Amino acid sequence: MATPLTGFLLVAALLFAVGLAGALTRRNAILVLIGIELMLNSANLNLIAFWRYGPHPEALTGMMFAIFSIAVAAAEAAVGLGLVIQIYRHAKTTDLDLMNRMKG
Amino acid sequence: MTFAFWLFAVLTLAGGLAAVLLKNTVHCALALTVAFAGLALLFLDLDAQFAGFAQILVYIGAVAILVVFAILLTRGSETPQEGVFSHNWFAGLAIAAAVFAVLAWAVLASAHVLPHEAAMPTVTVAQIGQALIGRYVLPLEIVALLLTAAMIGAVIVAMDEKERAK
Question: Which residues in chain B touch residue A39, judged by CB atoms under 8 angstroms apart?
Fold first, then answer.
């Protein structure tokens, strides 16, 4: 195990930037959710990396944080995709550039 | 930097980039699965076996399938003529690049205080289970409640409005 913590943190930062770019630039609502999932996953990588290199890995703090974060992200994906399906049924599109009115 | 780390990092980042850049939405979902698998391998590389296998089960097993279902239900696999990127894509790209620059600067500036080596933690699944029903029992119950509420909420949100009126 010779990889320094910096390597994992840089990979997580790059993945976060990729997810942010996807969430900000894609037109399809599902692709925006994919970008958000990538950002959440890169945060998990940070949590696990800090747990592994931290002074007290036997306390399991970072690991627990990551496991709960995975559960919350799964709930977020379910509700988000349900919302996208309902919006598609209502507006017949998932293109976010065309969703520019609040009136139902 | 071990060879395994480079392999997993390149796999994860290539999957993430493909998920964001590809034109066909179904291909994006499959690339997302590759990124999730790469992250699970990185977790295993970090000696977090439980989190790695939870990642495989939850993300590759559930979230990726859910995304594919949503794409097929919304006919998102048809590539729009006006392009897949928003009209203000340049601002989004600039914001993402700025965020990465700040994060990378923070990580590299503090590289000399970050630990380079750590003893391999000896954590068994039994210890994780005992921590979950001991010290972390309240968060576990809250997550259970959240998942139930999210499941019911997702069903209600995605339900057809005509059926709801009945």
Answer: none
Q: Could you tell me the residue range of the domain that residue B70 belongs to?
A: 3-117
A37 to chain B: which residues are within 8 Å by CB? 32, 59, 63
B41 and B104 share one domain: yes
Beta-carbon separation of B12 and A17 below 8 A = no
Whether residues B111 and B78 fall in one domain: yes
What ipTM was predicted for this assembly? 0.90
From residue B152, alpha-carbon distances to A71, A78, A86, B74, B149 in Å are 15, 10, 15, 21, 5
Taking only the tens place, the pLDDT of each residue in A44-101 is 999 999 998 888 888 888 889 999 999 999 999 999 999 888 888 888 878 877 777 7
Structure confidence by residue, pLDDT tens digits, A12-24: 999 999 999 999 9
Give me Rg for the CA atoms of chain A: 17
Residues of B in contact with A89 (CB under 8 A): 160-161
Indicate yes or no: CB of B20 within 8 angstroms of CB of A31: yes
Q: Are residues B73 and B28 in the same domain?
A: yes
Q: Is B78 left (phi over 0), alpha (psi -120 to 50) or beta?
A: beta
